[in-house]
Amino acid sequence: MSEKVVVSMGSFNPPHKGHFEMFDEILKVNEKFHLFVRYNEGVDLTSREVKEKWFERISAEYDNRIIIHVFTMEDMKGKDYNPHILAGAIHYFESLLGEPIDEAWTGEDAAPLLEGMDKEFPNLKFVVTKRCGITSTDIRNDIEGHKDCMPVYVYEDLMRITRGE
Predict the structure, then answer these.
(1) How far from 23 is each of 62, 151, 159, CA to CA, in Å?
(2) Separation in Å, CA 154 to CA 66, 75, 129, 150, 159
(3) DSSP 8-state code for residue 82
(4) Looking at the domain covering 6-133, what would its CATH class be?
(5) Which of 15, 18, 71, 152 is the most exposed place for a label (fewest CB within 10 A)?
(6) What is the pLDDT of residues 82-135, one digit of tens each?
């Protein structure tokens, strides 16, 4: 296992089995990694507090090998962003960590944003993973129909929110 600075990022709105597959893949080759979880007021299905609790629990389930950072960037709403915004996010993460990032892992949906990133980040390795075929958008459109794709506590919280509880 290496001691590289490894990150992954996304909205994880909500976290699902495709994300966990990526986490497992990252932790097969790294002792730990930093997970930057974007919170978007008005876009996320839940409150920031609930999302933070989910990821505290997820980190604990991975023996705290996932270091969680919940953040907000006003120019990153949903998936409506571009390579310039992604580069800004990476610089922001490096400033928070106080050191350069060695590896950034992402799902295949972000692959088009990576073209040309090697010019701005010549020492950063981007790793694109293929996920299980389910997306957070699919889940948001049919929470009940995708209950087996997410942790029970995420599903239960989402159903309470859906019912207005």
Answers:
(1) 9, 14, 25
(2) 18, 26, 23, 6, 9
(3) -
(4) alpha beta
(5) 152
(6) 888 889 899 999 999 999 999 999 988 888 889 889 999 999 999 999 877 788
